[in-house]
Specification:
Number of helices: 3
Radius of gyration: 24 Å
Shape: elongated
Helix content: under 10%
Length: 326
């Protein structure tokens, strides 16, 4: 009898998730522990096709234990799922920019069920994101996600930590990055705050951000950046003669609706690139696929004050153009 119920529950879950996501859910084994109203799952796999040509979203879980809240049982028939706990290990998520760009925008979508989770703990997580237009490849590992339900905010609130390798044409080899952030998650948005990231020669503190599933651009973010260019130079894929110094300022970037774009306003003291040797500088930086533009708004060096511009084009080798005024 219990085995029949487990098989029925497995079919219901696969059907519900398929209806909600348009994907395919496969469950290796499912074991219901009636004494404590929990479900143990081994080998969980979800594949959601892209709405355009490209790779699907893939989610795999080695092991998971899910607790069902007793007070939430009456809502199951109406499509409301109330979980007292989710503990998972060996979670792997993979998606690319094409999948994100193809997501529907412009309004809330009907949902076949609502989910509330009182407590979540995910260990040994992995995340892979790829963007062929840049190209950009992000591989996070040892990710940990912890959270509890906030009745006041009606959201899942917690913390994320991970180590990652950032691969891009700009770098000689993947740049190691460590990240940590706090979050609030609802059905329609993700709020990120107290976020920090560090890499060789770089420290960043992200401003509080809200990621909406309904806007034209999925992610827009800004951060306070501090960089020691002398430490970062060995990681760069191209040799930029004379690049060095320390910079500090604000940067902003967007992901979704096209290639990633980065804009920044930085102060440097000192700063050098090519023939320029500056004791201080006010810089505006623009990063687009294959190019970097540095506008020197004002600077002190070479025996006086000056302004200018440096253009780096690394789409086919490296080309550097320098313009100095003053």
């Amino acid at each position: 009898f219990e085995e029949r119920i487990e098989r029925s529950l497995e079919r219901i879950l696969e059907s519900r998730v398929s209806d909600a996501t348009g994907g395919t859910l496969e469950i290796g084994t499912l074991d219901v522990r009636w004494s404590r109203l929990s479900i143990d799952v081994d080998r969980f796999r979800l594949v959601v096709p892209s709405r355009a040509e490209g790779d699907p979203l893939r989610v795999e879980v080695d092991r998971a234990s899910v607790g069902i809240a007793v007070r939430g049982l009456p809502g199951l028939a109406a499509g409301r799922l109330h979980l007292s706990s989710v503990d998972a290990r060996g979670v792997r998520v993979a998606l690319d920019q094409g999948y994100i760009d193809a997501l529907p925008r412009g309004g809330r979508r009907d949902r076949t069920f609502d989910v509330r989770v009182d407590r979540i703990a995910i260990l040994e997580g992995e995340f892979h994101y790829a963007d062929e237009t840049l190209p950009l490849d992000v591989r996070a590992r040892d990710a940990g996600i912890h959270g509890v339900w906030s009745a006041y905010r009606q959201s899942l609130t917690g913390k994320v930590t991970a180590s990652a390798d950032l691969g891009a044409e700009l770098f000689r080899k993947p740049l190691p990055v460590t990240v940590s952030a706090s979050y609030r998650l609802t059905a329609h948005r993700l709020e990120v705050f107290e976020a920090r990231a560090s890499a060789p020669g770089v420290e960043a503190e992200l401003d509080e951000q809200t990621v909406s599933w309904d806007g034209p651009t999925l992610v827009t973010a800004s951060a306070r950046l501090r960089a020691d260019l002398d430490q970062l130079v060995p990681w760069l894929a191209v040799d930029i003669e004379g690049l060095g110094g320390r910079v500090d300022g604000d940067v902003a970037w967007s992901v979704g609706g096209g290639p990633v774009q980065v804009r920044g306003r930085l102060a440097a003291e000192p700063f050098s690139i090519g023939p320029l040797r500056l004791t201080s500088a006010d810089l505006a930086v623009t990063v687009d696929p294959g190019t970097v533009r540095i506008d020197v708004r004002s600077a002190r060096g070479l025996g006086g004050t000056l302004a200018g511009r440096v253009d780096l084009d690394y789409r086919d080798g490296l080309a550097v153009a320098v313009e100095v005024r003053g």
